[in-house]
Amino acid sequence: MKNDSNCTNDTGFQYTLYSTTYILVFIPGLLANSVALWVLCGYTNKKNKAIIFMINLAVADLAHVLSLPLRIYYYLINVWPFTNFLCLFCFYLKYLNMYASIMFLMLISIQRCMFTINPFKAKDWKRRYDVAISCLVWVVIGASCLPFPIIRSYGLSNTSVACFADLGMNNKMAHGPALTMITAAELGGFVIPVIIITYCTLKTRSQLKNDSLQRQNVSEKRKALRMVLTCAAVFFICFAPYHINFFFYMLVNWSIIKNCSVQKVILTFHPFSLCLASINCCLDPILYYFSASEFKNEVVRHGSTMIRVRLMSRESASSIRS
């Protein structure tokens, strides 16, 4: 990173921060998203009302979670013994998860809001529409995230032992493709989703108030509002801090911001914002449980079944002993 030679910033804490965060996220994220996929794919009868988008959201989270052990290893050992391709692929999965999650959270908000305003659209909406939209999202986001590892692979050789936070930045691209990419990421990955999610939240809340006065479908509208609010909460907690700070972080890297005190604040907050972006892997399953009645019912039903099986096995074992 290039900044003022008289300005030094202690970033040694980030290794402990990253490793601790990823260790805390890995087990809950792996279990929660695995259960979510199992329930949503195998035990949910209704495939409309954003269920397809939830499945894709769980897939995006699980892909990132499965790469965390390699990140944990690197930040604990401080050496990357694997291939450069694997390093860049894990780096790529981080941004793929982030922007795919943002898109699917936005789509869930849009769909719930749309069906709240016009319930007749929900009856005519086909599952294949959600499948087609999801495929399009993966293609667009997958292609859009490719420049991220390319920019951060600057100076990487076959003998490199550095990875992730220690990857170099191609400063020569500051006024070229990198600037275009950063602008597109901020607009498409933050500004537009902020506007849409905020609008959907306010519109759904307004619709619920109107229907409450008329006492029409209040219960269903409350579920819709709860889902949209949860999407907004996950977005603003996990992704807003990163995108707000990331713009200034790049200005520091490109030596546009030269004030030492400002540099220190931006560089110190950057690792925290990245950790918040990873926490979404644990928060998204809360969206499924509290917002999708089918998901909640299936989890409770299968949990109760497992408890009954265990109790019966204990009773059988006790009768045999007696």
Can you describe this structure?
This protein is mainly α. The chain has one domain: Rhopdopsin 7-helix transmembrane proteins (Up-down Bundle), CATH 1.20.1070. The protein is built from 10 helices and no strands. α3 (84-117) runs antiparallel to α8 and α7 (177-214) runs antiparallel to α8. The longest helix is centred in the middle third of the chain and has 38 residues, at 177-214. It starts with 12 loop residues before the first helix and ends with a helix.
Topology readout:
Blueprint: H1 13-42, H2 51-77, H3 84-117, H4 119-124, H5 127-144, H6 147-152, H7 177-214, H8 218-253, H9 260-291, H10 293-321
Helix pairs in contact: 1-2, 1-9, 2-3, 2-9, 3-5, 3-7, 3-8, 7-8, 8-9, 9-10
Q: Nutshell version of this structure?
A:
This protein has 322 residues and is an all-alpha fold. The protein has a single domain, classed as Rhodopsin 7-helix transmembrane proteins (Rhopdopsin 7-helix transmembrane proteins), CATH 1.20.1070.10.
Give helix % range: over 70%
Figure out the total of helices.
10
**End-to-end gap:** 72 Å
Range of strand content:
under 5%
CATH topology: Rhopdopsin 7-helix transmembrane proteins
The helix-strand sequence is HHHHHHHHHH
Essential attributes:
G protein-coupled receptor activity, GPCR_Rhodpsn_7TM, mainly alpha, 322 residues, transducer, 10 helices, Rhopdopsin 7-helix transmembrane proteins, receptor, transmembrane helix
